[in-house]
Amino acid sequence: MPDLAPSADPIAMQALGFVRSPFHSVQGMPIQTVAAAEVEGQLQVLPQFQPGLRDIEGFEYLILITHLHQAVEKLEVVPFMDNSSHGVFATRAPARPNRIGLSIVQLTKVENGCLHFKGNDMLDGTPVLDIKPYVPALDQRHTERIGWFQQGLQKLPSTQSDDRMR
Fold first, then answer.
1. Distance from CA of residue 137 to its chain's centroid?
2. Which of 145, 7, 9, 120 is nearest to 62 (CA)?
3. Three-class secondary structure of residue 158 per DSSP
4. Given a cut of 80, is residue 63 above it in pLDDT?
């Protein structure tokens, strides 16, 4: 088996654009895109990355990989839809190592390097690291085993972010 010793070298990434959002504070914002289906946002893609948008208007949904720039890093959290502590990798909490977020949004318009979308669960100014098209045949899985979320999902429509991730 090859040596899998961790590298001490940092992994560098750069934002390819920034989200414009009505949310300027984590307090009271939606915790998942499905709970924010009608909340609009925009992704202003930086000029040097705009050629990568070619043909993107052919997709209804996009996966945005983001840097959760105002989050903290924790290994155990009490998620918004539960009252018990869980390992962060068993949650979708924003307080996580590397502060990487994932949002599936509905693309509504492409205009001059700006992607307009619905399903916004991101703070204003959120850096976007990557954009991928959502393709149900590749991305959708059916499962009955969803851990503690089985009890927590009924809370989603009325649950908003609070200060527990600080």
1. 21
2. 120
3. helix
4. yes
Read off the pLDDT band of 146 (50, 70, 90): low
Q: In the structure encoding, which two tokens stand for residue 3, read together?
A: 């040596």
Q: Residue 62: CB partners within 8 Å, gap ≥ 6?
A: 56, 104, 105, 107, 115, 117, 131, 132, 133, 134
pLDDT reported for residue 143: 83
Q: Decide: 70 and 123 in contact? Cβ < 8 Å.
A: yes
DSSP string, 17-86: EEEE-S--SSTT-BSSGGGGTT-EEEEEE-GGGGGGGTTGGG-SEEEEEEE-TT----SEE--TT-SS-E
CA separation for the pair 68, 102 (Å, rounded): 9
**What residue has token string 């009505």?**
22
Q: Which domains are present in the chain? A: 17-135 (2.40.30.70)
Q: From CA 74, how far away is CA 84, in angstroms rounded?
A: 15
